[in-house]
Amino acid sequence: QTQESIYELTNYLSSLSVDEQTTTELEARLSELHDLARKHNCQITELIIAKDKVVAEVESIDGAGASIDALQQQQNQLSQQYQKQAKRLSKIRAEKAIHLSNAVTEAMQVLGMPGSEVKVNLARKAEGVHYNGDEGVDFLVKTNVGSDFKALKKVASGGELSRISLAISVVSSDSEYTPTLIFDEVDVGISGAVAEVVGQKLKQLSEHYQIICITHLAQVASFGHQHLRVSKAQQDEGAQTTVEQLSNHERVDEVARILGGATITDKARKAAEEMIKQSV
Q: Which of 69-78, 185-194, 195-204 has the highest mean pLDDT?
């Protein structure tokens, strides 16, 4: 019986015909599957999963195209809104620039700078979107009648710059907030009535800000609420600078010293007392 089975099996195998073309195609397909498995770093049995992942990624990319279109549309809308608001801001700036120029120029005349003039210049920026509008703001100044306007930082001296800054601060005091303003050399080249006006303007500003002013004029110093005396003395180890907060009595003496010199006379002290009294 065993011999019979072997005989039948041998006859069956002999009857099978091998299709070489089919075999070649199957081997080529199997080779492709191996290549794909290596490309996607997986087993042949996992290629279906890899295919589903690739299909999902392609669909995601197709969806991204729609998202890009939506974002482009949103950008165009925002750009139109920006242009509208930028034009509105430019119009307001042009109006305010004229007002500010005139107001600061007027304030400078009473601060001992006759013939000086300030112009707020609006310089157009390059095309595009800018976080603070389409213009840059420059302050131009001329310090004498007949001279040309030039950039503030290139023309004004230290004292002039302080007074121009004071004029700008006075004019804009109701529309901005800065905790502390510092004025140095604001009294350079002035005296008498003009110095008193500077003191009055500083006092006016002190209603809105903390003012720190370095001055050598009694007319300016008398308007301060608190006084610090800064002095320098030569020591063995070198120069030493001292800052002292003055009492009311010391404040009167210091104003008197500025008025009359190192020796404080009764006349100078009375003048200082009267000056401080009138500044209150």
A: 195-204
Single-letter amino acid code for the residue at 276: I
For the entire predicted model, the pTM comes to 0.58
CA distances (Å), origin 44, targets 26, 27, 39: 15, 14, 11
Q: How many whole angstroms from its chain centre is CA 101?
A: 23
Which amino acid is located at 123 in the chain? A
Q: Is 186 helix (H, G, I), strand (E, B) or coil?
A: coil
Half-sphere exposure of 18 (CA within 13 A, CB side): 6
CA Rg value for the chain: 43
What are the percentages of helix, strand and coil residues in the chain, rounded to 5? 60, 15, 25
Calpha distance 71→82 (Å, rounded): 16
Identify residue 262 by its one-letter amino acid code. A
User: By C-alpha distance, which of 245, 248, 163, 171 is closest to 208?
Assistant: 171
Structure tokens at 280: 């209150």
- Non-local (6+) Cβ contacts of 34 within 8 A are 44
The C-alpha atoms of residue 216 and residue 228 are separated, in whole angstroms, by: 12
